[in-house]
User: Fold FAD-dependent oxidoreductase from Mucilaginibacter rigui.
Amino acid sequence: MIKKLLLICLLLKCTTGFAETIRTDVLVVGGGAGGVAAAIQSARSGIKTLLVEQGPWLGGSATSGGMSIVPENRNLASGIYAEFRGHIREFYKPRLGYDTTRNAPLVFEPSTGAAILKKITDTVKNLTVKLNTPFTSIKKDGTDWVVTVMDNGKPLIIKAKIVVDATEPGDVAAAAGVLLTAGFDSRDDTKEALAPGNATNQIQDISYLAILKDFGRDADRTIPKPEGYNATQYACLKAADVKKLLAAAVLPNDKYLINWENCGNQYSVTADDLKPENREATFAKARLRTLGLIYYLQTALGQKNLGLADDFKTADHLPYLPYIRENRRAAGMVRMVLDDIYTPYNRQSKLYRTSIGVADALPGQHYSVAGVPHIAYPPFPAFSVPLGAVVTKDQENLLVLEKALSVTHLVNGAVTSPAVQITIGQGAGAAAAFCIFFKRTTKQLDVRTIQGEILDHKGTLLPFADIAQTDRDFRAIQQVAATGMLQGVQQPHGQTAQVLFMPDSAVRTAEVQPLLTELYSRAFIWFGKEKPGETFTLNNLLSYISEITLRDPAELQEAIRRTWKTYYRFSTPFNPKRPATRREFAVLANRFFNPFARRVDITGKLVD
Assistant:
């Protein structure tokens, strides 16, 4: 009898304790915009990659969260984001009235965006995607990560060498023990002149967005009065031009994206409200806030013909996720601050040299609670996002995306757009693939190799509005500019500032001399001998190339003259006495002495 009981206990223990274990090289947890891009890039770089997503869709905020009007990065679309954007525009191109202007904001129905992302991932070799697979835990086992998820209601153990946390709230980083901060940073901490004197725990509001459909003038799609409905919460909309608000939120197929500020569907939270133990209650209240807005729109504002579309298969037809604008930020190998955006070339660290993606988004300031500091940002330039911002400092082989990027609060609002996250995610995927391919850890990253992989896959490092991806000299300009030898020029326009390369402008000696001298020991001798003037002439450039490459000056000049229009396809005449243009300098420098080959560390410092 005792033997039978022991046998039964043993069998029960084996049954309850069993969990399937699988292995992969790179595991991406979270199928949001950044996570999908990271997984695609890692797999396209030839690395076995697994992507797990807790919900039924890929795309995160852009699809499951309903944020399907994306104005950011439309002038800087590259890599995987340009691919996604192209598929969306091609899908809607036959629809009457769809804006196919080259740099129009990207507009789509959430379900369409999710379907297109799934279609892209289905065609990528080395990539496995698991939907409806929530994350539960993570721990270290030697050099590997051991992650547990729930797959079809059963625990699934995944062993991976590199993990990318692409969850919207940064849950993986938190569970792994990464140091996290939230809210406004103090000025003493970040040294940002615009930061408030004291830190606070206040973060940007979350919003349950809503997709409404016009069911016709005579339709009545009024929803039941939501629990706790209070019409005074939405009273400021009485003075608003509702038709104008709706006109700015048009989606295809007679739908509208409701994402209204002030007394709309924003819901104030702190980082504590978004902790796992508080999340369900917080989200329930935020849903009621949005349902109340819809009811007010239908009843008090007379828009009963507008009803909730059935894009989302939820009981109330609101999105699967709230739109989370901000949460806890991880401590990374570097922390990006405002000065890295406004004055990237004038800092001791040169984070632009380590860029893995670009952005032209404005920082959001979405707060419905009183007393939150309003930041008077000067015109906000397009900028580069550094590699070190996605690499955790506390834990090797753990990368972070979405709201957990290592940036300050004042930068955070400019990096959370789905368009920006796809761009950053592609860079993170290239970094993860680098670690696997070269058998390195995240403490041993080679910035230039990772950037080369990003460029190979049509990504962008520097946010030049005047050098398109299709420009024949795009890569040469990107690589030389990533050294800082030729610097971008900020051109303010309203609240924003474009960054221009100005390819037809003359090269100034004062701009290129410092780095040329730092990179090449022979340069000091050459500058002392040649003494170039204020502008750097073609003669100067060819003479410098001859000095560095030890090529005969006359033979080099003749070779360049012969191939000036046929090989290089320069439109300017070959005249050695005139100033070199920035385009000419970038192309010839990249070809003959390749400053991009000089290694830099995670802070952008040149490595001997």
Q: What stands out?
A: Residues 5-16 have pLDDT under 50 and may be disordered. The longest strand covers residues 154-165.
